[in-house]
Design brief:
The chain is built from 24 helices and twelve strands. With about 750 residues, the protein is α+β, with helices and mostly antiparallel strands. It has four domains: about 250 residues, Multidrug efflux transporter AcrB transmembrane fold (Up-down Bundle), CATH 1.20.1640.10; about 120 residues, Multidrug efflux transporter AcrB pore domain (Alpha-Beta Plaits, 2-Layer Sandwich), CATH 3.30.70.1430; about 230 residues, Multidrug efflux transporter AcrB transmembrane domain (Multidrug efflux transporter AcrB transmembrane fold, Up-down Bundle), CATH 1.20.1640.10; about 80 residues, 2-Layer Sandwich (Alpha-Beta Plaits), CATH 3.30.70.1430. The strands form three sheets. Strands 1, 2, 3, 4 and 5 form a five-stranded antiparallel beta sheet that branches. Strands 7, 8, 9, 10 and 11 form a five-stranded antiparallel beta sheet that branches. A two-stranded parallel sheet has the order 6-12. A hairpin with a 6-residue loop joins β3 and β4. α2 packs antiparallel against α10, α6 runs parallel beside α8 and α8 packs antiparallel against α9. It starts with a helix and ends with a helix.
Length: about 750
Amino acid sequence: MATFLYRLGRGSYRLRWLVLAVWILVIGGVGAAATALQQETNPEFVLPGTESQEAFDLLEDRFPQMNADGGTAQIVFESTNGEPLTSEANAAVIDGLTAVMADSPQIAGVTSPLATDEAGNPIGMLSAEDQTIGVMQVTYTEPGMELDDDTVAYLEDAIADTEDQGVRVEVSGDVLQEIPHTGATELIGIGVALVVLIITFGALLAAGLPIITAVLGVMLTTLGITAATSFMNVSDSTGILASMIGLAVGIDYALFILSRYRNELAADGRVEDRQARAEAMGRAVGTAGSAVFFAGLTVIVALLGLAVVNIPFLTEMAAAAAVTVLIAVLIAVTLLPAFAGFAGKRIFTGRQRRRIAAGGHDSKPNGGKRWGAFVSRHPILVALVGVVGLGVLAYPATDLELGLPDGGSMSEESSQRQAYDLISEGFGAGFNGQLMIVGDLDEGADPVAAAQQVTDDLNALDGIAVVGQALPNEAGDTLMVTVIPETAPADEATNQLVHDIRDVLADDTGADWAVTGATALNIDISDNLNDALLPYMLIVVGLAALILLLVFRSILVPLTATLGFMLSVFAALGALVAVFQWGWASELFNVDQPGPIMSMMPILMIGLVFGLAMDYQIFLVTRVREAYVHGADPKTAIAEGYGHSSRVVVAAALIMISVFAAFIFSSESLIASMGFALAAAVIFDAFVVRMAIIPAVMALLGRAAWWLPKWLDRILPNVDVEGEKLQKHLAQDAPEDERELVGASK
């Protein structure tokens, strides 16, 4: 592996114009495809194989007049003059808005809170006690996130026209959902990354190369996603995770290779020599590039493993992010060397070149070496402090509550939250999470008898506030019943009620019953995620352990790496609970409404953090192994390895933290919490686990850390990440001047 990458890196440096032309053709081709093939993204959310999705599909088929997949809006009225909404003045406001909404673009139906049937019986939602709160139900012909901007603007203007007329009006519903976007968050992360790189390299040109290559990688993936909309369903949020991960790993991978290149070149001292620069790049890609390859492979495995959850939009996000990581690796080992070739000796500043020529450039940071030596001298103390500290941070995770956001989790200042609270006040919290019970009747079954049976079964259950009338479709082969829980959508009692309903109706022999609605769908998502968590961990950790076994040729190093990852995950979950659930420092982290953690956060964190944690494990420990296989004793190898790599790993971690932390200020709760959790996880993993606990444990293990059974050593392929075979190859086969260069680099 190292020899192949050495040739690739050296060749890319020398043939930089060809490499640049190939990448320009690739980007241009994908860009042309994106322009020609671009279609609308698909905001539809489906959960195949679940009861709620099957019931929803049945509703669409058997009750087409309901327009089940259309967007909805709940316009909530509250009297502010003390009179009921049925009073003449208040009714005029409601009737006026009803008439206006009936003329809205893409409208399917409007039901006023004052509506009555042909017999004069009220059918609208009007609070029973004082009739001061009412709800207008609005449905559209298209899903909420597919509605035209003019339609949404029409609704907002109609609401605004009701101000100062004696009636308070608030609105909620999926029609107001916005397509997730990250805005300027990437720019914030890039800005901080550039500052860190300038400090690390001390040269603006060298600092800019990782930024340029990372942005090109994300841009290429974005264009590819756009082109893919022509032949597959792509959700609106697919590119968000790709941008987040792509920027972070793209900058980091380029940083590791470029730093190794500068160190190799500085150690040789012949910065002005074009041949020396090409050889230095070959060695950098052969060694650091090998670590980048296997680090990227680990992240890709962790991302693609999310497919076991069987949530399409999550699989799409993970696949797009995995492609971004693959592109980042390819760019780092080909395009980055080409750019370095164009930069030539200017990869160092003039002052740095003069210092190197005078022999004053030290490519081995003393701070990292001193830290590695300190940890080796006090391994028990360092390991104990690190483990106990992360354990304390992980404690809040014992109170972890999972859920999916609803109106009650939004900011108290938002109209959606105020509409949610008004509905709860006027009708009960359960009206915010209505359940739809759909029954596919057996052939020849009596709809009347089936309706009576299901009504009796539902009324016998605790936790139900209202059981609506069972309504048949026109063909008489399907029944639909609306159920209002007593508790709010995110309450555990509502979760249990859905399962109780399903258990009771499973025994009904006259129909095949299913429960759907937004609340039931959220519950099914959570159940899917919980069921997939263990298989996912086994797949991802198992495959990644095999990769680490190949890289380090050790049993205990992959084991300690995985245990350290678990510490990082639990500590990050603890921080997430403290801020996003308990509300600690919520204003500082832009948390409008503390509440349950998103159901998909644990499995997303496990996948992403595991991949990123193994990045630092590979980057740091490969340099330790490199020193060890070249003859250093275990403790000296730790000091030497951390002396070479700790500074650049700290810089890489700071860059990754800044990229993730920038997403905390996203308006999308999932993206904000993900950015916080990933930033916290990188802090804990890079600075506590990889920089402290892992070297302490390795010092305690001594030579046993590198133990591998002989039979396993014989059958494992040698991927030569530390470049031992590469050094022998260069020393034996290279011309005399290159042999001198190899000797200088050792």
